[in-house]
Write a structure and sequence with these properties.
This protein is α+β, with helices and mostly antiparallel strands and 101 residues long. It has a domain of 66 residues: 2-Layer Sandwich (Histidine-containing Protein, Chain: A), CATH 3.30.1340.30. Helices cover 45% and strands 22% of the residues. Strands 1-2-3 form a 3-stranded mixed sheet.
Length: 101
């Protein structure tokens, strides 16, 4: 009987150890889980940049692809915006609909 109990405990220990080594999310996801959250994250990055906060820009997300709408004062600002967005976790692509004036 003792051997059976020890065997069961050994198997449980192995199973538990194996489960703890799996690469599973622990509730703290590294990226946005929805397009709405991704839109919010992207807008937050744009608004936190002093050079971009005054620009009239809006974004939409669909399956991780961000579409930019609005205007930028020059090509450098437009490139900066796109760079900020591309470096955002969860962004799979950027569609540029910005007007440069």
């Amino acid at each position: 009987m003792k051997r059976w109990v020890l065997g069961v405990l050994a198997v449980l220990a192995l199973v538990c150890t194996g489960c703890s080594s799996l690469d599973m999310p622990s509730g703290d996801l590294s990226g946005p889980v929805s397009d709405r959250e991704l839109e919010s994250l992207v807008m937050g990055r744009i608004q936190s940049d002093p050079a971009l906060v005054q620009q009239s820009i809006s974004v939409s997300a669909r399956e991780g692809v961000i579409t930019l709408y609005g205007s930028a004062p020059n090509q450098e600002a437009a490139a900066r915006i796109k760079s900020q967005i591309r470096s955002t976790p969860g962004v799979r692509g950027v569609i540029d609909q910005l007007s440069v004036f």
